[in-house]
Amino acid sequence: MLSSNNRKEGIRMDGLTVKKISKTYDGKKYALRDVTLSFPEKGILAIIGRNGAGKTTLIRILSTELMPTKGSAMINGIDVIADPVKARNLMAIVPQEARAIPWMNPRQQVLSYLLYRGFPYNEASSRASAALKSLGLEENAKKLSRMLSGGTKRKILVATVLASEAKIIFLDEPTTGLDPISRKELWELLNKLKNDYLIVLTTHYLEEAEYLADKIVIIEDGRLVAEGSMEELRKRAGQEYSVRVMDATNIKLPKGVRASKIEKGYQILTNQKEAFALSNMLMKKKMKFSTNPVSLEDLFYYFAKRSINEDTEESGEGEWH
Amino acid sequence: MALKQRSVFSQILASVLVNAIYAMQNYPIMFINTLLSPISILIVIVFVSHGALIGIGIEGALIMTAVMSGVSIQGDLSHLKNDLKLQDMVVTSPTSAPVYVAGMGLSEIVFSIPVLILLTILAAIYIHPTAIQALTIIAVMALMFLFSTALGFFLSTLTTDVLQSWGFSGIVTVLLSTIPPVYYPITYIPLPFRYIAYISPTTYAAQIAQASMNYIAIDPIALFVDWVIVILVCIVLLVVGYRKARWREP
Ligand SMILES: Nc1ncnc2c1ncn2[C@@H]1O[C@H](COP(=O)(O)OP(=O)(O)O)[C@@H](O)[C@H]1O
Ligand SMILES: [Mg+2]
User: Fold this and answer.
1) Do A117 and B94 touch (CB under 8 A)?
2) DSSP letter, residue B188
3) Which end of chain B has fewer CB atoms at under 10 Å, N or C?
4) Is domain A12-233 classified as CATH 3.30.830.10?
5) Which atom of ligand 1 has the smallest separation from the CA of B160?
């Protein structure tokens, strides 16, 4: 009965299916609103959004730490909301603010986590050694965590979950606060794991999502505003070029061209022809601007930021000066 | 690769390692700390009573060690949950809440082993309990341990940071250990104030232990009531701790 329903509604039995998840902590303000998405059994799903967008809330619901107010979520055919005990056998998380335990060394950290997963001591012990070795952490394996660098500590937490048997891994902002080199190292590691794991990660580093993700989900103020691969997002936006004007004074835009507010000015996503014409006009006006192929950052602004088109449209008569 | 049989023993061992063995291994100073508090109160009681209360004092220290293990579990769990996010990692793992708490409870006992050994030696020298009397004291200690562990777990799930947790444990410590007459007979407290002491379950536990060694005289019905109260409080807290505990947050 259930499975035939599922088939009818196109819910996949493998991978992740999230349907209309909403969450309010206080009964008034919604941290998530009707989030629906799906993702196959393997690969990296990146959830991007500003601070407070709802990324952690979503990841905590999917990892059975938090009850949603409404909605359902299935992972590999298991109902995460109704049957958390079963789901927990398959998954592991590194929470946003998790820290390596300061009075333990990396080996003890990994080993104790494997014991929590229920491995017999001997197996846990050999798995811990193997995991530390494969991540190049063995020279630090016996140093107390509080003596290690921030990047190494983060890597240890990732190593901790990867040493386990779980194939569904949640990483909440795994690279926040890391130096660029440690970040790249972690990226290389995650890239290698893509084919064997379902990794759900959140980040506010857009280049991270662009580099790693098979699918990107953009969340803004609790709502899913866009989802897809980079290519799909570009297609959805229908834009190839981004013109960013670093000047707050209004310019007149042709009808149908949308501008969005960005930090110190605004941004126009458009096709090649219009982008070049616009660039010429801005050059003549001696305004500060840049023209680039559309990046995830541009797409993020495109999907997430409220359009200020209404403001410019009134004055814009299709004449570029 | 697939794990056929998950070992609950491993899951309990994990908490004992994290919260007791590795902590003591790497921070030996914590050892001294656990010894200090019950022993120093015992010494004060013995001096002030010119040695008369040494038996009751040792019993009191044993009961307080059991109670304080439960109180420290609250601080430890809160630290592991709020600062280190270990609990979130364990929630999203095959370890269940009761197994996690049982392991943490056991870790507190392991932590108390030095002080328990010392007090057992003192008890053998100064109070010579019979087997029945020893079992009575152990039973009371076990009940107090279960009660305070369940209370500690319950409170830890309500806290969102460690400062808040310190606030809770301060209040709990006063209620369970400062107010009640654990190291001396309740009759030492003048009457109107005596009723305040009856708020705390440790008062009844101490009374049972003191009566069992004939340090105080108490009629059988009152003793029975003491047992009922101690057992009831323990069961209620275990049920509340189990049911209200926020493993998955609402
Ligand atoms: N435990 C909580 N209680 C109340 N509000 C919360 C709680 N956790 C998060 N929020 C609120 O929910 C919203 C989304 O937060 P969060 O999911 O942490 O966002 P992100 O991870 O994208 O930064 C924010 O407005 C935040 O203040
Ligand atoms: Mg977050």
Assistant:
1) yes
2) G
3) N
4) no
5) 1
Beta-carbon contacts of B122 under 8 Å, excluding residues fewer than 6 positions away, are B58
pLDDT band at A40 (very low <50, low <70, confident <90, very high): very high
What pLDDT, on a 0 to 100 scale, did the predictor assign at position B39? 85
> What sign results for the dihedral spanned by CA atoms B82, B88, B90, B96?
positive
Span A110-155, pLDDT tens digits: 999 999 999 999 999 999 999 998 878 888 888 887 788 878 888 8
- Paired residues of A30 in beta bridges: A24
User: Domain A240-293: which CATH class?
Assistant: alpha beta
- pLDDT tens column, A200-237: 999 988 889 999 999 999 999 999 999 999 888 888 87
> What whole-number distance in Å separates Cα of residue B22 and Cα of residue B225?
42
**In this predicted complex, what is the ipTM?**
0.86
C-alpha A153 to ligand 2 mean position (Å): 19
**Residue ranges of A 9-68 with Cβ closer than 8 A to chain B:** 60, 63-67
Quote the tokens at residue A53. Answer: 């967008």
CB-based contact, A119 to chain B, within 8 Å: yes
- Chain B within 8 Å of A77 (Cβ-Cβ)? no
Strand residues in chain A grouped as ranges (E): 16-24, 30-39, 43-48, 70-75, 78-79, 91-94, 168-172, 198-203, 215-220, 223-228, 241-245, 259-262, 265-270, 289-293
**Residue A97: nearest ligand to its CA?**
2
Q: List the one residue out of B68, B242, B74 whose CA is nearest residue B152.
A: B74
Q: Whose structure tokens read 């000015």?
A: A265
3-state secondary structure at position A295: coil
Dihedral sign, CA of B47, B52, B58, B64? negative
Render pLDDT for A236-252 as a digit per residue (tens, 0 to 9).
877 778 888 887 676 66
How many residues comprise chain B? 250
Q: Which tokens belong to A129?
A: 């050694």
Which positions in chain A touch B94 (Cβ < 8 Å)? 88-89, 116-118
Domains of chain B, residue spans: 2-244
- Of the given ranges (A77-81, B3-7, B87-91, B102-106), which has the lowest mean pLDDT? B3-7
Q: In one letter, which amino acid is A136?
A: G
| Per-state percent for chain B, helix, strand, coil, to nearest 5 | 80, 0, 20
Window 19-58 of B: residues touching A by CB (8 A cutoff) are 22-23, 26-27
Q: Is pLDDT above 80 for B44?
A: yes
Looking at residue A2, its pLDDT comes to: 41
